Amino acid sequence: MKREAISSLLARRTFLRKIGRAATCAGAMVATGALGVTKKAAAKSESKPSRVSFPTKDYDWTKHQWAFGVDATKCIGCLRCVEACKRENDVPGDAHHFRTWVERYVYLEGDKRARVDSHHDPVNIEASGSEREYRFANRYQDAKVEKAFFVPKLCNQCTHPACVQVCPTGATYRTQDGVVLIDQKYCIGCQYCVQACPYGARYFNVRKGVTQKCYWCYHRITKGLQPACVEACPVGARIFGDRNDPQSPISLFIRNNRVQVLRPDTGNAPNVFYVGIDKEVS
Amino acid sequence: MDYLVELAPYTGYVYPNETVIPWTVLIVVYPYLTGLVAGAFTVSSLYHAFGMQRFQPAARLALLTALCFMIFVPLPLLLHLGNPQRAFNTMLTPHWTSAIAVFGFFAGFYVILLMLEIWFMFRPYFVQQAQRSSGLAGRLWHLASLGSYDLSPKAMRYDEKWIFALAVVGIPAAHGLHGYVGFLFGSLKSREWWSSDLMPVVFLFSAVISGVALLIVLYVLSCKVRRLAVDLECLKGLAYVLWGFAMFTLVLEGLEFANVVYKGREGIEMIIEYVTGPLLVPFFILQFSIGALIPLIVLTYMIWRGTTGKALIVGVTVSALLVLFQVWMMRWNVVIGGQEIAKTGKGLLSYQLVLLHREGLLTAVSVAVAPLLLLWAAVRVLPPWEKAATVSP
With contacts defined as CB-CB under 8 Å, which chain B residues touch A206? Predict the structure, then answer.
């Protein structure tokens, strides 16, 4: 009887000890998990990685300084770049959401100011037949055109981005290699950044409830590829490369041309360099 | 498609992405509500911090009004967010260079401050009710008093000190909260219509007049409902405050507009085209003429002639209603107006207000009316007019 009682007491003690251990383990796991989440969340607003290679194993973002060039004198307004971008980046297929777009500036004879249009212009949509077909209508064929040119536009990945400054959560941030990214899983969708961007580069994706924009095809450039728009351009109007490499196309483009940026007065210090644009382009 | 209702027709050249207006009528309601809070709190502080006895009849109502409106301030923002379930990210990982990042902390602090001040003010009432009632009601009143039943003169003096301190701290808190809203717009360099150093100041002054005006209307209304005579001294005092701040607001807004026009920076042609075109009626006629000048003229006339009695009540109430309308129009003209002038400086957009939409007119009206319903319920639980049962400085 006594022995039985002792053995049952022992069994109970072992059982309780086991439960205790399990509970401690579970508690520790929850605690470290919570700590991990907090740390991860806190890291959102920091742009410096703890590892050397970031964001992928074989790509180190401290080794590159990406930049973009636009030679407006070469652009023919074919809009292959827009189409490539829309497909590559799953951009909403309408005339109101663009990561890159092309503007047409036309001075008719006697005009003091340029007539500007882009793909969202109803005349252009009507000419192409759909918001998903990108084409400039031949609307000036009967007019006397004095001067005309195309200007491709995209996110300037500014050195001092106003959009990053105003983001309340740090969901949008500037990478070490000079690209402004948006964490789609962290953005709250307040659209303050859309307001702050002076270039109209950001749009709000209402289905996902987050802001989106061009990021120079970061998923491609970190693998050694060119951005989709650069690859699609048939005339070489878009130039992309690493400024850390003095022989890269972009370094040569900046070195061999008198380049300018859009709206330097904002202090944003854009990183898309233009050649061949006119005073009215902003 | 959901976003199609937000597409804005335009003239001239606007960026393709601009054709969807980012901030809707809900972002007009948001600064309107914070403004009412700041203004109502100012009135309560005139009595509780500065001891201006004439405001005593409206002071407690002012505090309850501030709380009821403050509780609803985050709602228009949450309704506007693309991912409202992530709203707390702003507090978990605040990105301090953003004006919005401080909102959660500021608003949270201010709500706690208001609740504390109201608790101290109504503590004698809680105790009285707890002692009077039994059963569940009694227990709830006991809970509301937090078991603090000491109503001795010493304890009351202690409470008074707290109320004074909270009223004093509340002034920079309320005005900081609203000044920050002005900064939110004024600090953006992307829009000429917003980018102004005067913006936070203009927002602050218009906030004060909107809150005072709301209180005038609520006070007169509460007297009518309760079939009591309106305290003319109190009303006159509120009218003076309204007059003074309305004058400042008008001058500041005039100066701000003059600054934009006088500096004449890039894109000014479009702004001039806008204010003399689509903004002519909302800006010059509704906001400045009907909303600002008429109440100023009416109030000036009444102060000059020493109007009293029913004429004073009607005159001041009508002026207050017009001021409320003026401030609404000011918020509208800033928030929507700023987005209707394209960033290109070469075109104008036209915001489309729809009735039934997550960010439509019905939602906006509901959010704006909800604080009044809460206040209606609040004054039933905590009657702000029962002098004897509350602490007075």
Answer: 2-3, 6, 82
